[in-house]
Amino acid sequence: MVPTLVRTLGVKGHRPIVGTRDNKDLIYVFVSMNLVTGRLTTRLLPSQTRHRRRYGTHKTRRLQQAFARHLRDVARAYPAQRHRRVVLTIDNAPWHRGKPIQEVLAQFPHLELYRLPSYSPQLNCVERLWKLLRRRATHNRLFEHLAEMAHALRGSLSYFQMLPRRILSLVMSPRRRAKLPAA
């Protein structure tokens, strides 16, 4: 996630001012959405350029390791004893495949990955959550430090976790949405 600039309201005749930073640091967010209960399983990975130079870890390798840890989080949240089959819909990002991912899938055989066709973000339910998360956590905000952005993202994810009905509304048709019980 990167802070984003969007339209905003302002006083007529005065241009709103939003600060910016020449900062290449960003935060990768991994989220799994339960499409039945609205529960979220999340993991944040700060990606700081100075740490990349110091440790020399390749971006794809770091993201593969983080995604493998996220899959372990999902396996703990949905153990095989209670959930025979857990299907995760993913896109074709390079960090969604590779040896670390195969090792986790071998360790937790009840986890399955379902790959979406290339260039089809409209089929991925989590893309709708990204839009809301950006609007709530990063739109028109200047973060002095990466930790502040991580705090804003965690706060917004916690907010959405407290509102599973809101999560479910992202994936349901308007007709099914009307049948949801009141919160």
TrEMBL record:
Give the matching Pfam families: DDE_3
Q: Name one GO molecular function term.
A: nucleic acid binding
Q: Which domain of life is it from?
A: Bacteria
Stretches assigned to the Tc1-like transposase DDE domain: 50-148
Q: What positions belong to coiled-coil segments?
A: none
Protein name per its UniProtKB record: Tc1-like transposase DDE domain-containing protein
